[in-house]
Design brief:
Helix content: 55-70%
Structural class: mainly alpha
Number of helices: 6
Order of helices and strands: HHHHHH
Distance between the termini: 49 Å
Radius of gyration: 19 Å
Strand content: under 5%
Shape: globular
Largest sheet: none
Length: about 150
C-alpha cells in the first residue's frame, strides 16, 4: 500500500484482468454491521405487517436485479429526499415507512450480491417463528450416518 491507503494498480496483463473481473465475496463479510441492521429492521417491518411470504416470493423472483435496483435507488434519491415526508406519511399507514437515514444504507447494502440472500434469510427466520433471531449463516446439513 502507498501513503494514500490504496493498493497499487496490478502489474501485468494477467493481474490486470484478474483485478478487473474480481467479484466480491458471497458471504456475510461483504455486509457491514450497519447494513445488516438496516436489512434486519426492514425484514422486521415486513414481518410485522404479515407480508413475509409475499416479500420472500417477490425478492426470490427479482433477486438477480439487486444491483440494478440499487442503482435505481441512487438515481431516485433526490426525488426520495424531496417527497419523503409525504411518501413516508402514506407508507406509515401501512407500517412500511423508510427512515431517511436508512435510505443510503439500504442503497449500499443492495449493491452487494449477498444482501438479497441475507434479507431472504431474515424473512424466513421470522416466518419460521424465530422472531428477531439473527440468522448469520444457513444451517449446516447433518450427516445421517452418525
Amino acid at each position: 500500500m502507498d501513503n494514500t491507503g490504496q493498493s497499487p494498480p496490478p502489474r501485468g496483463m494477467r493481474a490486470w484482468l484478474a483485478h478487473a473481473f474480481a467479484v466480491e465475496p458471497y458471504d456475510e463479510t461483504s455486509l457491514t454491521e450497519e447494513e445488516r441492521q438496516v436489512i434486519e429492521r426492514l425484514a422486521e417491518r415486513i414481518h410485522a405487517r404479515r407480508l413475509t411470504t409475499a416479500a420472500i416470493f417477490w425478492v426470490q423472483s427479482n433477486r438477480h436485479f439487486n444491483w440494478v435496483s440499487s442503482q435505481a435507488m441512487i438515481f431516485f434519491q433526490p426525488f426520495f429526499d424531496m417527497v419523503h415526508p409525504v411518501l413516508n406519511g402514506i407508507l406509515r399507514n401501512f407500517g412500511l415507512a423508510i427512515p431517511p437515514a436508512e435510505y443510503p444504507q439500504l442503497m449500499s447494502a443492495f449493491e452487494k450480491r449477498y444482501s438479497v440472500e441475507y434479507f431472504i434469510q431474515q424473512l424466513e427466520a421470522r416466518a419460521a417463528g424465530e422472531g428477531g433471531a439473527r440468522v448469520d449463516a444457513p444451517p449446516e446439513s447433518q450427516d445421517e450416518t452418525s
